[in-house]
Amino acid sequence: MPYRYYQAKSNKVLILLHGSGWHSRYFLPLAEFISAEGLAQVYTPDLRGHGTTPERRGDVDYIGQFEDDLMDLIAIIQKDNPKAMLIVGGHSSGGGLSIRFAGSRYSEKANAYLLIAPFLKYNAPTMRPNSGGWARPYTGRIIGLTILNNVGIHWFDYLTAIEFNMPEEARDGTETLSYSHRLIKSYAPRNYEKDLRAITQPLLVVVGNEDDAFIADQFEPVISQYTSVQVKLLAGLTHMGVVVRPEIRPVIKKWLEGLGKL
Fold it and tell me: How many structural domains are present in the chain?
């Protein structure tokens, strides 16, 4: 799994997981800020099936492979940083994967979680229809394959389950415009209520109040039902703007500084 590394003299390590359709390059402004301020070392992996030269674009080998890949990356990081505070974070579907990781057998590996406009579930109260027009799910196929999965049949998990409406001007040949059933399942929480309950570590959620994929003011009432959370709504920011615009930087700086030491 290729990744970008942003060095810093810090005992904190932050892994940022990208959202659907692209790869980790869009974290560059935020990761460079965190690194330059000495707030944390930052790793931004290109998840399996994504990036410039993936083995199979838009596909993984099995449901749950993303969290296994993430654990492999954590093992590599901890060889060089055995006493570091590990923060798992992500944007959009990457936030959903962070929640999934929290509910997995690896949950205790993280010391804190940073979620930026995280995906919870297609019908969660935080969702706009079809993510505001970004996603075109193959609903009938997903239902059918899920039924098969529930009885242990995974023969057809390679089939396409969702496509994305990425604007032509945003494409550069490294985008990933469709996902297999097993990839989309790997990206999302298994059960966001149960997975959120597993988070006992410090949790920050940041959302732009003009998010065009999710309903920003629903995050606090939904997530706080299941775990202790600090939610920050940033005025005037969209779903992508909340990551790339500078308004998020002082929020994350204050939070990272407040985490202290292990």
Answer: 1
